[in-house]
Amino acid sequence: MSESMVRVFLRTCPGDNNKERPDWYSKGTCVRSLLGAVDALRASGVAVETTMVVDTSSGKALDADVADLAPDFDHLIEVKGGNNRTSLRAFYRSLPFDDYEDDDLLYFVEDDHLHRRDALLTLTTGTAEYRFLYSFAPHHGEPEPGEGWRAVPGGTSSYGVQVAACRRDHLWHLLMLNGGGAWDELTYRAIGANAFRDGWEYVVRPFHPDNLFPHRSKLGSLRHSVARAVAETARRTRRTPATIECYVPNPACHAETAVMTDHADWAVVATPYLPEPATAPEPTVTLVLPVLNGADYLEETVDAIRAQTREDWRLLIVDDVSTDDTVAIATRYAAEDPRIRLVRMRDNTRKRGASAVGFALATTEYAMEANADDVLHPDALEKLLAPLEQDPTLAASFGGHRNVDSIGRELTEYGDVIAEYTGRAGLSEGRAPGIRRLQISRGTIPAGTAATLRRTAIGAIPTYTNTHTDFWLGWQAARTDAVCYCGERIADYRVHGGNTLRAMFRRKKARDRMHMYLAIARESHRDELLPIARKLVDNGIIAVFGPLAGRRFAAQAKELSQAPATDETLETVGSPE
Question: Which domains does the chain have, with CATH numbers?
Fold first, then answer.
């Protein structure tokens, strides 16, 4: 394995199933054991890359212990799934095989597997295409007698595989995920390895009342039966079956009481990885800062957060594959201040995926999105959190912001236009009446700059929001009409290079906004449909004609990108949506 790289992919999601677990179990314990095995492998001289695959479809936060370990992974990937099967399908589709060498070893594992420290070292000693660190005989077949790497007729959804074999069998993995029932068992049969339940009786077994994986309907049984027929046909016609082995005694276990082997005292294995008692109070609010090439302003933004009068915060910088000095700057701040954490996305997500992952890692009671080029005033968090802590019925709080140019000069007249257009100019301090309608028609809540939400109010961020996560977060805050306006400007919003205006007239962004308004329309009141219809028409025109729909504004935006903005140049520019 000296010439290969081991690529470890941990799949995780919020919550847990209701399976019976051993007393020592926690997701954090299992993930720490995996990282311990990674450390041992790296210490042996093997190159290792670790990736955390986060399912954000529920919109909930991850287990706090797992979220704390996210910065220890080299990269993060966001997938939309909702269950083990659909999230795995989304993940398989994202694998960049062109970036891998044939002799690289991929290790896919879930967040409830415990590893001995030598588990991954053991994985690299195998020679089979598919390698398993644990097996459970009734489901996966009985390994051949003896110790070491033994042939086994079946396997699990956590396994090691050579890239060449994974690339060859990729379509079977995707196809069998749609088969219902034990899709991992279907996959291994299709690639020629799983034959411990031979014969065509296997195909009709889903209709049997004693089937191991019962279905709620005959349609489900039929789908599973058809998938079994396809898998069995593939197995019988495959010229060269995949090679598959399991190591005995198992160096890892699935932490479900019903399937754990007795190959080790797993409580003893888990002991070094048990969570330690907290030594510092938990933060109250998480600031999620998705950033792409934000080196020009990132230091000023982070310094302003560190200068807050409220110190009970956590800053989560989510790098969206920057190519400038963003990562170096964020790494330096993370080393200086334990409240600051850096995680890196594997692929650019156009902000939405980075934001979704950031909020999945936000385990505090409150959370907010921050822009990498905006600056919070020193008392911003204090003013935003005070009403939320005093009134548990509030879903969010927000304030106004100053509009400044690229070098920090206030754009007074432009700021007045924006305040008037968004409706913030007419608001009084306290609960904001009619905030739902204002958010729909004017985008009143500046959720990417100066707004804080209860974590439970955020929910899932739909894929079609793309770069418009701030508007969607504003809608999530406003939908209950339980929002407080702080009555003051609490941040500086930087207007540079036409960053607000140019986005208005891009066809793709207009289509994104149409998707959002259609989603809002499905849960809107009758009197809110007219402003939604107007927005749909406006954005429909832009989606068709693009910059031609606002040539004058686009030209002015281009002019702004070539020089620092001033009050005079911004004075006549149309208001952003």
Answer: 5-164+242-273 (3.90.550), 170-240 (no CATH), 285-570 (3.90.550.10)
